[in-house]
Amino acid sequence: MIIHNMKNKSNYDRFPATSIKDGMLIKGWDGILNKIIPHADNRVISIECYHGVHFDELMAQFKKIPHTLFVDARSYFKPEEEILQLTQGFITEDVLFGYLGNLSISDYFDESSLSIIREEIVAVAKKGNIILFGPGSSLIADPDMLIYADMPRWEIQQRMRRKEVTGLGIDNRNEPFSIQYKRGYFNDWNILDKHKKKLYDKVDYWLDTTKEEPKLIDKKTFFAGIEKTARKPFRVVPFFDPAPWGGQWMKETCDLDRSVSNYGWCFDCVPEENSLLFDIGGELFEMPSVNLIYLKSRELLGDPVEARFGDNFPIRFDLLDTMGGGNLSLQVHPTLQYARENFGLPYTQDESYYLVEAEEGALVYLGLKTGIDRHAMIADLEKANENPGEIFDAEKYINILPARKHDHFLIPAGTIHCSGKNSVVLEISATPNLFTFKLWDWNRLGLDGKPRPINLERGKEVIRWERDENYVSKELANQFHLIGEGDGWKEEQTGLHENEFIETRRHTFSTTVHHDTGHSVNVLTLVEGREVIVESSSNTFEPFIVHYAETFIVPASLGAYLVTPYGLSRGKECITIKASVRF
């Protein structure tokens, strides 16, 4: 099995952070309460909470603040049955997919109950502290002090799997993880993000409870971290997950827990779900990286990209490891029209596979064989999926190509595809990350011992049947075009397909390469070489070191920047793959 570069110990940084000088950080509940209580004197204190925090723990601690009245905002929500009815159109009956909702946190409150508690707040005002707790609490009364307990989506997912958290206004902790995630993705997170965007300038303190020991920073430190991160290349915190088809390459390359059976995914650039770390005096403060995008969308994405996508980060990078594992599911992504009509998405999940590593014999399934009978193929898929033990003959219908290191396969929506075993794929895609229609899963079970959901009924509606062997060869497989070259460097355009809005460039270099963001956020991965250094052409940011397999983001506002082999890679050939938004 190929383990790249492992004659050297892994240098992959799993906890990248922005260093903040002179920031304020307080650890532990005692220190946090000692910071807050001296400023609490006949005041209204609101503790706004994102989905996924441990409400009971937080309430128990904040009740230690002397108070005349403690208000749990959730107690003034509409009844659970009414919330279920309110959200049903967005959650739907589908096991995986819903429709992006348009509700606000105010829609959750029962107005008659709010009127009563507001009258009580007025009656006890100036008789002691009033503590408002929970999501939407700052809407009950104007707070004198606002604390926000935030939570990254990846940590929420771990807590969902452990049945530790409830949905917004409902107790769904005992439902399957996929159902909890669906409610979060299509409803709860949209609502809470919409509310949080209105609070950024009002929050006095930010609370991190992702780990056992809580941490608190103040407004000045929060914005110092946001400002600094937006003005330099940066990485979000990668997260890793096993998969039914997962491999062994990430364990060594990314220095992960060797006792875990496998790792299939490395999500190194999914800002909606990743965390952002601030290093404050040697202590790490964690928060959702999406905060940066909401606050600095123009500087980060670029004016033209923001005009098109708003404050949505449109590019996703992740690694898929099947080294010593199995094939991914045979799958297809929805076309744009289908995604709009069925899920409320503004764009769909176009993508590509860039081969970071591949053993001899590695394959990729891409498109269809020329001249197949589509009705026969669907019938065979239905038969295989409905009858345990039946096998779908993929070789009869699916175009199969050898997959070699540094190949690049383009996968516009509607194209049947699947990464085969014994490879490592850098998946470059548009951000929507839930919308995969599985057509065939090779008769295997998920990690929970149950069959994974098959989406053949949806999938057959979006398959682009004309994408056969000839089309793949001409349009999708290794579409490399030389852009320029010089002494020690070469730049190639590698895609993506004309149907996709992402542009990718590959740079092969042993000397310095000059880059420019071109008014779009740039996302890059070092796919060959031990490490490189990223520097400003005008000394506007500190040099930034990137290691093999790490993905990093360059804000559009930085303009020109340089990438040079560094350390043990100095003078040796390195390769980066870069994505930006095509105008």
Task: Explain what the structure shows.
This protein has 583 residues and is an alpha+beta fold. The protein folds into three domains: 18-228, Rossmann fold; 239-476, Jelly Rolls; 481-581, Jelly Rolls. The strands form seven sheets. A seven-stranded mixed β-sheet has the order 2-8-7-6-3-5-4, with helices on both faces. Strands 9-10-13-20-15-18 form a six-stranded antiparallel β-sheet, with no helix packed on it. A six-stranded antiparallel β-sheet has the order 22-23-24-31-26-29, with no helix packed on it. The longest helix has 21 residues, at 177-197.
Total number of helices: 16
CATH fold call of the largest domain: Jelly Rolls
Q: Would you identify the CATH architecture of the largest domain?
A: Sandwich
Strand percentage? 25-35%
The number of domains is 3
Shape descriptor: globular
Distance between the termini: 41 Å
Largest sheet: 7 strands, mixed
| Unreliable runs | none
Tally of strands: 31
Largest sheet, spatial ordering of strands: 2-8-7-6-3-5-4
Kindly state the percentage of residues in helix. Answer: 25-40%
Oligomeric state, counting identical vs distinct chains: single chain
Q: Structural class, from helix and strand content? A: alpha+beta
Task: Give the name of the CATH superfamily of the largest domain.
Answer: Jelly Rolls
> What is the CATH domain class of the largest domain?
Mainly Beta
Radius of gyration: 25 Å
